[in-house]
Fold this protein.
Amino acid sequence: MSGSDAAASPEERGRLDIHPTVLRKIVEHAADGTPGTLRHERRLAGVGVGQAGSTAKISDGPDGAVDVALELTLQYPAPVRRTVDAVRGRVGDELTRITGRRIRNLAVTVSGLRGPDDGSTGSGSRVQ
C-alpha cells in the first residue's frame, strides 16, 4: 500500500457493505454456541434430514443497526429467561465485535424445549 493510500480518510477509501446473509450466519452461530441452546432434528415431508440449530431473520434498521428475529430450541429443564438473556448478550457482542453493527431489536422465539434423553419438544413461546 502506498503512503497516500494509507493516509486517505475513510470516506475516500470507500465503504464496506456486509450482506444480510453474513449477518444472519453470525447471529445463528453465536446463538448456537450459547450454553443451554440445542440443535433439533430437521424434517422434510416427515423424513429426518439432519440437524439444525437456531434460525434468524435480519432486517436493516436505521443508522446501521439491525433488527433480529431469532428462533431456537433450549434444554429442559433449565431457566429459560436466563438462557435467553445469555443468548441476547452473546449475539449482540459477537455481531458488534465482528461487523461493528449493533442490534436495535432482538425478538427471541423458543420453538422447543428438549430434555437430555427424551428428544421431545414443547410448544413455542416468544420472549421479548
About this structure: The two ends are 47 Å apart (CA to CA). The helical segments are 3-7, 10-13, 20-32, 80-99.
